[in-house]
Amino acid sequence: MTVLALLQQAVDPAVAASRSGGLMGAGIGAGLAAIGSGIGIGLIGGRTSEAMARQPELAGTIQTAALILAALIEGVALFAVVIAFIIQLKF
Q1: Are the beta carbons of 84 and 27 closer than 8 angstroms?
Q2: Digit-coded pLDDT (tens) for 37-47
């Protein structure tokens, strides 16, 4: 009897609508996190090469700072994607 109740709940339009909204939100959140981190890391790369062209003697320092910043951005993006997938699992 419990299997029949679960199947009826699975095809209920109200339940399906609430699930689809949560799943869409999780997918959009993961996509925005990936796009945002890509833009951020791209800006860091562009500004780094510009800064090294202007002051070649500081290239090592600039490169180190850029690498640390890129790693921090990547960490935040990974955290956002994991949170989006956790939200997806809740639905």
Answers
A1: yes
A2: 999 999 999 99
pTM of the model: 0.71
Q: Which of 40, 33, 45, 36 is nearest to 81 (CA)?
A: 33
Rg of the chain on CA atoms, in Å: 22
67, 41 Cβ separation under 8 angstroms: no
State mean pLDDT over 44-62. Answer: 94
CA distance 72 to 77: 9
Asked whether residue 8 is assigned to any structural domain, the reply reads no
Euclidean distance between CA atoms 77 and 84, whole angstroms:
11
Domain around 42: 24-90
Question: What length is written for the chain?
Answer: 91
CATH number at 33 reads 1.20.20.10
Residue 37 belongs to what H/E stretch? helix 13-54
